[in-house]
Amino acid sequence: MSNPQHLRYSKEHEWLSATDEKGVATVGITEFAANALGDVVFAQLPAVGDTVTAGETCGELESTKSVSDLYAPVTGEVIEANQDVVDDPALVNSAPFEGGWLFKVKITDEPADLLTADEYTDFAG
């Protein structure tokens, strides 16, 4: 498993891109989480305009094995949800760091405990 170095990670197994010039970052789940879930068959993502709060549930992913809550790694307003993942949830498994991203958020608060790729790799084992 190779976690991209340019991303930051939560202990709930979400990844977060660097913010762009407008303070917007992309959120997804890690390859580790996608593999643990198994084949994702349903994605409930936060809606555009929703406010998400770091560490709190903001959606869910359902797989052939189980249902897993999706946690926000930061606080902010959702500005885009990935409709491709809603239409084809298997993207979460096949491309967790590319086309399988989940939503974009305009960040208002970022917790200090996000992990680097190396820290996340050590954490996830």
What does this structure look like?
This protein is α+β, with helices and mostly antiparallel strands and 125 residues long. Helices cover 19% and strands 35% of the residues. The chain contains four helices and nine strands. It has a six-stranded antiparallel beta sheet. The chain has a three-stranded antiparallel beta sheet with strand order 4-6-7. The protein is globular and about 35 Å long. The N and C termini lie close together (10 Å). The mean pLDDT is 95.
Keywords:
19% helix, 125 residues, three-stranded antiparallel β-sheet, globular, single chain
Give the radius of gyration. 13 Å
Total count of strands: 9
- Unreliable spans are none
Secondary-structure element order, N to C: EEEHEEEEEHHEH
Q: Determine the mean pLDDT.
A: 95
The helix content, as a percent range, equals: 10-25%
Beta-strand percentage?
35-45%
Q: What structural class do you assign from the helix and strand content?
A: alpha+beta
The main pleated sheet reads as: 6 strands, antiparallel
Distance between the termini: 10 Å
Shape: globular
Q: Work out the helix count.
A: 4
SSE order and pairing:
Layout: E1 8-9, E2 14-16, E3 24-29, H1 31-37, E4 40-44, E5 51-52, E6 57-63, E7 67-71, E8 75-81, H2 83-87, H3 91-94, E9 103-109, H4 117-124
Antiparallel strand pairs: 1-2, 2-3, 3-9, 4-6, 5-8, 6-7, 8-9
